[in-house]
Amino acid sequence: MLQQVINRTVVRTRQAPEPCELCGAPLAGVHAHLLEERHKQLLCACRPCALLFERGGAGLGRFQLVPDRRIQLTGPPPADLGVPVGLAFFVPQPDGSVLAHYPSPAGATRGDLDAEIWANLVGQYEPLRSIRPEVEAFLVAAVRGLDERWLVPIDDCHRLVALVRGEWKGMSGGPELWARLPRFFAELSERGKGHGYPRGQA
User: Fold this and answer.
1) Per-domain residue ranges of the chain
2) pLDDT digits over 33-70, tens only?
3) Can you tell me whether residue 60 is helix, strand or coil?
4) This protein's superkingdom (predicted)?
5) Nearest alpha carbon to residue 35 among 25, 20, 45, 47
6) Which of 90, 97, 113, 143 is least enclosed, having the fewest CB within 10 Å?
7) How far is CA 30 from CA 25, 44, 84, 109, 172, in A?
8) Angle at alpha carbon of residue 147, lines to 146 and 152, rounded to 5°
9) Is the dihedral of CA 102, 182, 123, 63 positive or negative?
């Protein structure tokens, strides 16, 4: 069954209103995500499909299960980490490089993170030594009174990008965005208390 799933062409148009993007089964309001490695896209997955990859399917095809761990980190202030802006996340790649992403009203701008900066971060935050390339990220927020550092699933970073892009108003972002960002990180803390599936919202 697993081989059938990982070799199946991903069908994006299904009759179910909220389908699993592997098998087409209806999804619950909360569910897992898979990273489609070829196009770097997140796909929504039902519990049975997610469990296939949780039990060893990851690496056997072109999909990776996005992990379900969120770890709040403590240590030096984000301003002392060499991060060029106040809101960013960093995604290690299989080749050892690290991509930096900066949420903005236009989406997320992207660039390479200096290897020395990443080595310094990993040295300061032990959980980063086990970060999974492409599907986990180091998230930093040092803006408008926020002082947040997290190891998070990549789908949380996608939610953050959508939040910034959707709420941004005017030149400075607007009061709605800056009120919503602390709630986003409070939600990370709540989600971090749970384990297993079902999990994050689409």
Assistant:
1) 2-65, 71-191
2) 999 888 888 999 998 888 887 655 544 568 889 998 99
3) coil
4) Bacteria
5) 45
6) 97
7) 14, 10, 34, 28, 32
8) 100
9) negative
